[in-house]
Amino acid sequence: MALFSFGKSTQAPSSAASAALLDGFSIEVMPRTAAKVDDFRALLPRGTRVYIAHIDGTPIEEMVTTAARLSEDGFTVMPHFPARIIQDEAMLGDWIARYQGEAGVTEALLLAGGVSEPRGAFHSSMQMMETGLFERAGFTRLHVAGHPEGNRDIDPDGSDRMVGEALRWKQVFSERSDAEMALVTQFAFEAEPVLAWAARLRDEGIALPVHVGIAGPAKLQTLIRFAVACGVGPSLRVLQKRARDVTKLVLPYTPDEIVADLARQATPAHGIAGLHLFPLGGIVQSAEWASSVLGQERRLRAV
Fold first, then answer.
1. Helical spans, DSSP H, in the chain
2. Which keywords are on file for this protein (predicted)?
3. 87 near 128, Cβ under 8 Å?
4. Which CA distances in Å does 247 have to 199, 219, 252?
5. CA distance 37 to 52
6. CB neighbour list of residue 292: distance below 8 Å, 6 or more residues apart
7. How many folded domains does the chain comprise?
8. pLDDT at residue 53 above 70?
9. Cα separation, 257 vs 280, whole angstroms
């Protein structure tokens, strides 16, 4: 897996560096939002990795149908497996078999999930990994969650002790697993906290590649609502500062600044493997923004 280096030594224009970092981005959808898209092939580059978010209450049949549609259209599909809404190993095995048999899925994002209390045997992604079901089913890639600004659900005291222990366990697991593993982070609005966290992981011996989550274009009020609900930390100040500027309040947010900062400041030591888009303002808006950034780089190459 390629890791990006866009440090101070690069001579490329900032737009070119941003495009290089964004190239190969992933994005996520939900079944109900995917149903509103007539043709994903007109929106996303062929082969794009598309995560399918499993919101509590979504029937597995809808998840699998969405996965099959995206797979048939030529996309790499990575459904969420939220541990706390999965009853037991039998249900987990059934989900894996359905995704494989009906949609050819061999990738998964494993996470605890958005509910506070487990519905059954699992309360963490680690417990699902320990079953060995994904490996026995031949899954080739497993992603797990990263939290550059902490996670109050896991560490209510505001520390990162439990999160850190979980990441060290996942690093050890990755070393004995045949599947490729990586971290995909919660979305952030500022590069510095993300890069500091990524560098600290390397110092602690956690070498999993990092896919940095960024929020796609959206209204400011929408982003603030999602950021508060999802526990975004210090980088929320970027939105709060923008909200105080009347001239910017009515303008939609775009992630150009954080992408440019990541592209300019990241080095191989950070282990940044790419970007993951959270289309909080709509998948069409996010896809069009990504296309404009990548298209700008193509125009520069043609000059």
1. 14-22, 31-34, 60-72, 89-103, 125-130, 133-136, 161-176, 191-203, 220-230, 237-243, 246-249, 256-265, 283-302
2. Oxidoreductase
3. no
4. 36, 14, 11
5. 14
6. none
7. 1
8. yes
9. 17
> What distance in Å separates the CA atoms of residue 288 and residue 213, rounded to the nearest whole number?
17
**Closest of 284, 214, 260 to residue 25, by C-alpha:** 214
User: What Cα–Cα distance (Å) separates residue 73 from each residue in 49, 136, 226, 288, 294?
Assistant: 12, 27, 30, 19, 21
**65, part of any domain:** yes
CA distances for 188 relative to 20, 110, 231, angstroms: 19, 20, 10
What are the two backbone dihedrals, phi and then psi, of residue 110, each rounded to the nearest 5 degrees?
Answer: -100, 125
6 found inside a domain = no
Find the CATH number of the domain harbouring 99: 3.20.20.220
Tokens of 106: 């061999």
pLDDT tens-digit series, residues 261-303: 999 999 999 999 999 999 999 999 999 999 999 985 443 344 3
Cβ contacts of residue 104 below 8 Å, gap of 6+?
71, 77
Residue 249 lies in domain = 14-297
